[in-house]
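Box 4.2: Ligand-aware structure prediction
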Amino acid sequence: MPKYDRITPEGTRDMLSLECEAQNRITGKLRRIFKKDGYREVRTPGFEFYDVFAAHAEYYPQESMYTLADGRGRLMTVRPDSTIPIARMTATKLKGAETPLRVYYAQRVYRQQQELRGRSGEIMQMGIELIGSSSFDSDMEALELAAKALAAASSGRFRIEIGHVGFYNRLMADLTATAGEKETIRRCIATKNYAGLNDVLDGIRPAGRSAHTAKGAKTVKTVDMIRKLPRLFGGAEALAEAAELMNGYSRELTEQLDYLDKLFRALKKKQLADNFMIDFGLVNQANYYSSLVFRGYTTDAGSPVLSGGRYDDLFADFGEDLPATGFGLNIDMLTSAALKKKSGTLAKTGSAAKSDAASASVSASETKVRIALTKGRLEDDFVKLMERAGYDVSEIRDKGRKLLLSTPGANIEVFLAKAPDVITYVEHGVCDIGVVGKDTILEHGGVYYEILDLGIGKCRFALAAPNGQNPLADAGATVIATKYPAVTGRYFESLGMDVDIIRIEGSVEIAPLLALADGIVDIVETGTTLKENGLSVIETIRDISARLIVNVSSMKLKKAAVDGFAGRIEKVIK
Ligand code: PRP
């Protein structure tokens, strides 16, 4: 039996002194800030009964929690979040305490990640909860405190986006669609997958004569608003655009819009407008949050480092009726951003380091866009798109063995990588933009925005089998070979079939010929490979094409540069 006595479990790591010291500097500053504003520390147990989180299965699916059993066989979970245990504690130990109650926490949370790709399953979090108040002032207090916390804890520039789950909730309630369609819509809005959103919404049209009734007109308007929701983000201009779009739709939406407008104006008065933006497509935290939601980004961190919102209904799960607002900061990400910044400064010498004043480095990094491009099939087609969009692609064409390529005359750097690595680079924020096939996206998942269907690299996912055979109809145990086990697993699950999947790295077509499998799931472009190997398509699973994906942080911190590039490419897509 192998002994695991020299390594730490996946998703965990040791922290050496330098990192501990950097982390302590950040937590120390945050403690001082929270205390000064009247927040007092609380701690909750490292593990809790599973029932505490059971009502929030959508937000904390069972497979994302580390579970264990106590001596009496009761299911417990290692703390995946601090807000829910604090709600439990407030509703019990602090029942009847004077409100508003201001508490802060500094503790680790544990979440199982399906594929870690460098992400940790153990996260140090600090945050605040302002409990027992639902006023405009309490939302402002939380937002200002979030800005103060990020100003102190982030090494570069930071930005906080604010949104309201009410827009999404209202529009979805007004939309007649299946639960599956609604989930696809939610995912497309959260990932700014404009193309995917259009596809699903195009199928939701009032039929026949009902299109001309008042109800039909409302459906058309609802669909139009949902379509635009993820594109509505930015400063005051996004609010103005939203006001025009939502004009006359419903009083509820107008009130929510006015609320965001009021918050934004109040933040502007406090000279904080540059640090805040609005995103009407902020929906993926819509579980326990009930109205205001916000997320914070900082340079050198590829994912949000802060997330929060108002959660007025959470306490009801614990028998109390208390409104609350709060936010949590990912201290590990802030620490690694601080260390990255420090090593970048140390790497420079003398005058270069001195001239690297914060503002100068910010403006340079803010306009530079780094693109990870899938090498091989997509490479040539995408380079042609760039050329048509007016970029000088000479260096990319004559690259030789060079991997990091520049675009003369534009502040763009192109980097060639294998498809799954494109996703990893974009998720980590070392590349702002990625060009990758939908096949890889479906197989690997991940957190990023998928903003353009590039219309290149078109092919399809298909189930194929030797001529004359059909794994869907033939009885018996079925074995499928594929480079895409996740996609294949989901496909057969949707058919209610339990098949054995064998992962193959390439030339999958050979597997049925050598009797390793009954069929394959693979991408088919011209169909030549199948034909020449005596296989035929049994069913097309879905169409595939290349997508432009964007790191979530770059989309907010480098909006102008990212929009500029994507806009030019969008214009030349056929
Ligand atoms: C892909 C796919 C098929 C082939 C289909 O393989 O896995 O084998 O292309 O193309 P066609 O329908 O035009 O014949 P790829 O060339 O990427 O190589 P690999 O199988 O070694 O990964």
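In the box above, the bound molecule is PRP. Confidence is low (pLDDT under 50) at residues 348-362.
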